[in-house]
Amino acid sequence: MRKPIIAGNWKMNNTAREAEALIAAVKPLVKQAKCDVVVCVPAIDIPAVKKAIRGSKIRLGAQNVHFAEKGAYTGEISAPMLKEYGVQYVIVGHSERRQYFGETDETVNKRTLAALNAGLIPIVCIGESLEERESGRTEEVLARQIEKDFVGIEDFSKIVVAYEPIWAIGTGKTATAAQANETIGFIRKKMKKIYAGKNVGRMRIQYGGSMNAKNAKELMAMPEIDGGLIGGASLKAPDFAAIVNFDQ
Ligand code: 13P
User: Fold this and answer.
1) 134-179 tens-digit pLDDT
2) Which of 66, 69, 94, 103 does the annotation list as catalytic?
3) Residues 25, 109: Cα–Cα separation, whole Å
4) Rounded CA gap, 166 and 74, in Å?
5) Contact at 8 Å (CB) between 35 and 244?
6) What range defines the domain where residue 181 resides?
7) Is 63 close to ligand 1, i.e. is its CB under 6 Å away?
8) Overall number of domains in the chain
9) What is the domain-level CATH number for residue 66?
């Protein structure tokens, strides 16, 4: 069985002080959580959040990682730097990074391997745009990402994949539970085929895109969906907690 994993992606929100307040509000609400709970926070919030989550079930995540261990990469943060701070998870290849910061399948792959190398669990994001879905190219786009983003991984139980249809991110347009389930099923099948014998069956796949307190239960009831990557709703304590407690 795959243990469900609910992760908040705060994106570029919350100063360190605001982060402390949000964690303080979330903490008592997720005490009974049965799933893995993660918050992926802006890098500069990491020290404050590390302190704030003490004694709770919440685990620390980052939103990006560079592929080199160190060197002349102004503005970047390496996997060993995150690791030393107690970070356990890191989002890689979010569509916003692909869209606004020139992330490619090749760099996503390199960052994923760097994260694994340092003992971090990468949450690798894949997904199609609206135009790609409407022109019937969803599977083709996902297949390309699957072929390129995961090259060189030996044990897929050590990674998480987030299927985030770009058209559902921050738009209030959620994929229907059936749509998300079907596409995630496709991803799992395809990955099992390409990366046979590498533990793909134990890899968790999240859905992301306008997941909220109202639709979480239905999405999480789907057999292929192992969790959620939550943007907007992770910024409000009661909403995030309601998603985490989807099974209660
Ligand atoms: P929203 O939940 O705000 O749509 O964002 C989803 C997302 O991009 C999570 O990484």
Assistant:
1) 999 999 999 999 999 999 999 999 999 999 999 998 888 888 999 9
2) 94
3) 36
4) 29
5) yes
6) 5-244
7) no
8) 1
9) 3.20.20.70
